[in-house]
Every structure is written in structure tokens, then in C-alpha cells.
Amino acid sequence: MITMTTEISTSINIKEPRWDQGTFMGRAKHFFTVTDPRNVLLTNEQLENAHKVISDYRQGVMSPGLTEDELWRAKYIFDSAFHPDTGEKMILIGRMSAQVPMNMTITGCMMTFYKTTPAVVLWQWINQSFNAIVNYTNRSGDAPLSVNQLGTAYVSATTGAVATALGLNALTKHISPLVGRLVPFAAVAAANCINIPLMRQRELKHGIPITDENDNRLGESTTAAKQAISQVVVSRILMASPGMAIPPFLMNTLEKKAFLKKFPWMSAPIQVVLVGFCLVFATPLCCALFPQKSSMSVSRLEPELQEKIRVSHPGVERVYFNKGL
User: Fold this and answer.
1) How does it sit in the membrane (predicted)?
2) Which residue has the higher pLDDT, 320 or 65?
3) How many whole angstroms separate alpha carbon 269 and alpha carbon 214?
């Protein structure tokens, strides 16, 4: 069988995703590729090769025999491992491709071991430590965060989240076991509202980079940072919802069956698999709720920034920014 390969064009815009980001379906296809858990297994050599292919292509240099499909594959390997603003290689467990394997394990254990205070504290602390790494890794902007700022944000975020979980656990001591199973989800939802803004507090204080449609930097905006962080909070809570809301109902039924009464140790693995199945779909679909390259009207920016843009770039009506993930 003869296979045809498409020779590559020199005008492909690899700064943008392959699919139209103006539609939910286009964003969903993009994030199914970016969050593919198989990307976690890529070697450093494969990552560096993708980095070289993309860097070379941006400078007009193409590897001999490179096809369009291979270019896009390299772009998505590149996007899954390198930060869009800083260009640095991201921490492995902080990448979006690690979300499914990491979250299914942590969430499954949180929902299995929720009845004692030490277990709640341990798993909420592990979960919020993981969230802190993800939130820092996927922050917007290229300004560095000092060790002191990072430490303060981490301690306040994890403490607030664990306290929330313990408070909710105490409130549900005398209600049905099913409601008790939903406590970890309520705690995670509340904790996301604390953890994400705290881990990204520098953006709220100093703003995130905003550009025109041609990627010319126009300044930093705290208003854009607020929109970006609020969108990420909403998508993260919804991302956790199916995996934390559906398995409790199934487990409540399964634990009454003879199988789990005979093999109670199977409860945690079953819960982890159920959560993983939900996350495979929830992670990319909830990332796709809002465009990663978000935008807002110049008229909604801070007054002094509006004035600066009107003077330096009078034709610009809309600004763009990376909202983070």
C-alpha cells in the first residue's frame, strides 16, 4: 500500500491551536490533545526534539521530510510540557497531562478515607499540595514568584482548604452516609476558591500581560487577572464535579453488595477507577469552557491602562491574555 504524505507549508500558524478556539468543539479537541495522559510518558529526548522542531519552524527552518501532521504533533507535545508565557519546561506533575492519573489517585483516596480526622487532614493536605503545584505551574504571565511569596501562598492555601474540609466533616457527622461521601467534593470546591487565588496572588496584585491581536504587549492588567482566575476557579470546580459526585452514588450501592462485603479492600481501587473514567472526559471538557487565550474590551480595563493604550495604540478595541489553566 502506498501512503501519501503531505509536504509542509511554511505559513502554518503554530502560535494558535490546530482547531478553531472560537467554538467549544474546537477547544474540546485542543484540550483532549493537551491533557492526554500519555503525554506524561514522553521522554526528555522526545520533549527536546519537539521543542527543536517548533523553535526551528518559528525561525523558518524545517527538518527534511517533516509533514504537517508531524508538525502539529510536535506542537502539542511542546504545548503539553512548556509554559506558554515563560517557555520553561513545566514540573511533570503540574502539567495538565498529569491531571487524570494524579487526580484519580488522590480523589479516589479522599473519597474512600473520609471518616476519620487524620485521614481527612492527610488526603486534603496531599490534594491541596498537588493543587498548589498545578496552580503555580499553570499560572498566567512570565513574572517570577519569590520563594517567600510561594511559601506564604502554599501555607495559606493548604491551611484554608484543610480547615474547610474539617469544618464540613464536623457538620455532617449526624446525617446520612451518602451526604457524608459528598463532603470531600464540597471541601474541594471551597478549597479551589481559596487555593487558586492565593497561589496566583501576584497576578491579582501586579496584573498579567495583555496584548493586541498580533501579540504586541500593551501592559499588565489586574482586571484581566481577576477574569482569568475566576474562569479557572469555575472550570476547576466543574472539572472535579463528575468524579466526586457520581462515584459516591455508585459506591453507596456497591458497598451493600456481597462482593464488596467479601473484599472490602477493593473499595479504594474501584473508586480510583471510577474517578479516573470521569476525569478522562471532565478534564478536557472543563478546560474548554473558556478560551485559554482570553480577551476583554479595552473599556473594561483599569482607567490608567485604558488611557495608555488609547495613546500608544489608538486602534485597539480588544486585548488578549493567557488565562492559565
Assistant:
1) Multi-pass membrane protein
2) 320
3) 49
